[in-house]
Structures are given as structure tokens and as C-alpha cells.
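This section describes the prediction task in plain terms. A model, or a person checking by hand, is given the sequence of a single protein chain and must write out its three-dimensional structure as a string of C-alpha cells. No templates, partner chains or ligands are provided. The sample shown here is typical of the held-out split.
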Amino acid sequence: MKVSLLALSLFFYFMTANAAVSYLPAVPAVGSKCEAADTYNLCRNNAMSAQCMETDFSCHCKQAQNLMQCISFCSRDPSISSIGSSQQQEVTKWCSKVTATPSLISPTATLPNPSSSADPSMNKPSVNPILNASTTLPGASYQTLLAIAFVIIGAYQI
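The expected answer:
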């Protein structure tokens, strides 16, 4: 039982370790033609920090779009701006899969019927905070939290 929990934990960890391909290199803060190198590098690092499951096309799409936006911070640097077409292909690759394939796992919000409640505070969407990985552990996906839970459960059983 202990081995199977550990194996399952590792499976979820490695499934979340995939990322959209980034053609964008880091640029030095000094001596480059990039007009906002620090902002570009921060944008690039933030975009690459997203951990997407291999089949989470929506996550990959958003990550590729975020990487594409980073190019605007170095529009005068030909080594960065010339990569735009390759990065755009990455956006097209992932985002076309989003519309073609619905996500199997996605956080859901329940929207109440506004006419069913006189209290305006009751008209807010309710999201399960445990399933909302972005508030529980910033940058983590639901699958990452699930993998962490399996590791904790496995540790208690050892």
C-alpha cells in the first residue's frame, strides 16, 4: 500500500511538470538591446512557472499566450522579436486543442440564480477553496495539490 501511494504521488508530480515550449531566452539586464530586460525576464519566469498537466490544454494555451506577451517588452531586440513567429506557433498549437477538447478537470463555480435571493452577498460565485489551487498554493494546479496530499497520506502510513 505504501509503495502504491508513493508511486501514485510521483505519477501526479511528473504529470504536472510539463510546460509549453518557450523559445524565449533570458536576456542580461545590462548590455542587451532589450528596452525592458528586467520586466521581460520577470514576465518569462512567471509564465514558465506554470505547471500544467500534459493534457491540460487550457493551461498550456494560457502559458504560451503569456510567453508571447513577454516579447513586447523586448521589441527592439532582434534576437527576441524574431522568435515571435515560433512562439505564436506554440500558442496556436495549444489553443487550438482547447476548443477541440474540453478539460476533464477544471475548478467549477456555482452561480446562484439572482432572482432566488434578495441578499446581494448571496449572488457571489462559490468556489471550493480546496479545489481552487491558486488560493491554496499560488502557482500550483489541482493535480499538484493532489500529489502533495498523497505524499502526506503516504508519510503518515509509513
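For orientation: Residues 37-99 form one domain.
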